[in-house]
Amino acid sequence: MIDIVDLHIHSHYSMATSKNMDIDNIALWARKKGVTIIGAGDIMHPLWQKELRDKLTDLKNGFFEFEGIKFVLSGEVSLVYKKNGKVRKIHLIVTVPDFKTLYEVSDVLKKFGNLETDGRPTLFTDAERFSEELFKISDAVYIIPAHIWTPWFGLFGSKSGFDSIEECFGDESERIFALETGLSSDPGMNYIVRNIDRFTLVSNSDAHSPENIAREANVIKDVGSYEDLFDVIKNADKNRFMFTIEFF
Length: 248
Prior knowledge:
By secondary structure, this protein is an alpha/beta fold.
């Protein structure tokens, strides 16, 4: 089976996001676009957590199902902090395998900011400490830097980013295995940069409205579980990670 996978969207709890970004409309538009596996979006927001818990069916393999669409518990956070004399603003995608882990992650992140004010919470901690805290919770928690070239909020962004993964994540760099290209670049452009050759490049929609789901996505063969999905991404399995769908 060929799966179309979009791991980065938002819910109606995020600022500047359509009120139609609820579970029913997300599933509806995922089906229209041919998406089979989609990120749940905004998993740190307590009200969205409740909606997800109430409506999704746990498939007991790290996926959750609604009307034939598989959901991954993933969401974006915004880190704002100062490092090496410069203010940094970085967006990261976080994925977890189950609600128990999600609640543990949420309890940790409450130390760094208010999780109720926005679906994409602003957290006042640096990427290295953030990653260290989350990786302690579970080996099945994954972090993917989002839209890495965006001037603001991209890891390599010219306004508030870094010049290398190591400068950003420090001792936790080895646990980062994938980067999201973002709408303004594609894998061919990214691979010109030699110091990111070891990372798998993924493409996601960052959809703020249902119609934009899968404007970028990943095409992967025979995804059996949450761990299987991330093993394919982590290992850049060319037999199963077929290609990405790119924004025009």
